[in-house]
Amino acid sequence: MAKVKDYIYRPEFECMSRPELEALQSERLRKTVERVYQNCGPYRAKMDACKLRPSDIRSVKDLAKLPFTVKHDLREAYPFGFYSAAQSEIVEVHASSGTTGKLTVVGYTQNDIGVWAEIAARSLAMAGVTEDSLVHVAYGYGLFTGGLGAHYGAQKIGASTVPASAGNTIRQLTLLRDFGATHLCCTPSYAIFLGTEIEKAGMNIEDFSLIGGAFGAEPWTYQMRGELERLLHIDALDIYGLSEICGPGVSMECMQKHGNHVQEDHFIPEIIDPETLEPLPFGSEGELVFTTITKTGQPLIRYRTRDLCTLYDEKCACGRTTVKMGKVKGRSDDMLIIRGVNVFPSQIEAAIMNVAGVSPHYMIYVDRVNNLDVMEIDIELDGNLAPDRVSEIESIQKKVETEVNSYIGVSARIKLCESGSIRRSEGKAVRVIDRRG
Ligand code: DLL
């Protein structure tokens, strides 16, 4: 039974008719384009290069005329060259490191912090947060936007906010239980870790008051949601965002648990073909692109996220009218090419989580042996399964092998390991070690 009630925080924006929304988006887009052209050198240069003037952008229908922005553009302008506001107006700076290269820096004005608090509050309201809730934030606080984003949202609602930050699992569990947290915010992999540690810590989930949570910052499957809900006795909802656009809350799943609503009065989403860069219709899988239309510090125009997913324009039973994003399959940079086949870690997760007897803790190793790509997946056995039941373990191993092969079309060596043997992460999970150099 669902425990969470889905509160529509701002129906006047979340439930607008499409013509009303497009009129609002067009007005905000015009202002944003004018702002970046007048105040941000790299944008003026990009628009001049395509012979575009702000007056050429009259409505959302003109969006595709505008040039894209990519991470490399931000890094070239490191640290503050993409600001569209004076340094004196910037009140907070965040940055993401990615796997390589320079930091990608994002500056927020007071207005932008307000936008962020608003979208994070709307998101937490979808997970049932009210002023009576107690929200335990176990995303990292710091340059990463997870901690402060969830914090601003919970505070805007008026909930009691516990800024636990990441790490120290026993302390997290003790605080969650003793303070009676109703909602948990952290990465799904860390939430699973917390869930599996409860019993080991001699605690009982019945003594916790949790009902829901907002989990994101990394791809996770519907199967993982099932596991998380079973372990923590909660409704586990998906929150999406990225530092460059506005941290957590750019989109959020409602209690229908079928896609994340994009906060379209603040961000215009598009899906493009990552090869041809042409916009694709709703329902097609492609690269997600966002244009911010209410930020003033560092607005971004047609920012290519590298995240692969699908947008849906379907009526949602929750009453919101905004476009929904399907599950993020992964970043195009995270795609593995194994013996010529494109594989995303999230597909492997979906395959292994279909088999009973394994836990959600796994690690993928890729090697090149005699010029051939070889993949090994180490998966922990379910904690309740004794490792000496050889025939049962062999049968699980076979099932995982078959499932992975039929899901992704590539064979993998499956190694089942003892519970607790795979490294846990307190933030974004590291799932792949590619040793092919
Ligand atoms: O991860 C912001 C965030 C914090 C989102 C907390 C949700 C919760 P970055 O560190 O800049 O920002 O990483 C952004 O993480 O482009 C996606 O590839 C991935 N990502 C974020 N949320 C999800 C999600 C934060 N719900 C990058 N599902 C994005 C899948 C996600 N991937």
What is the class of the largest domain in the CATH system? Alpha Beta
Distance between the termini: 48 Å
Strand content: 25-35%
Rg to the nearest angstrom?
22 Å
Major β-sheet annotation: 12 strands, mixed
Question: What does this 3D model show about the protein?
Answer:
The protein is an alpha/beta fold. The chain has two domains: 11-333, 3-Layer(aba) Sandwich (Rossmann fold), CATH 3.40.50; 338-434, ANL, C-terminal domain (GMP Synthetase, Chain A, domain 3). Helix content is 30%, strand content 25%. It contains eleven helices and 20 strands. The strands form four sheets. Strands 3, 4, 5, 6, 7, 8, 9, 10, 11, 12, 13 and 14 form a twelve-stranded mixed β-sheet that branches. A four-stranded mixed β-sheet has the order 19-18-17-20. Helix 5 crosses helix 6 (145-157), helix 8 (188-200) packs parallel to helix 9 and helix 10 packs across helix 11. The longest helix has 22 residues, at 18-39. The model has no long low-confidence stretch (mean pLDDT 95). Bound molecules: 5'-O-[hydroxy(phenylacetyl)phosphoryl]adenosine. 5'-O-[hydroxy(phenylacetyl)phosphoryl]adenosine is lined by residues 96, 139, 144-146, 149, 216-219, 238-243, 247-248, 305, 307, 328, 331.
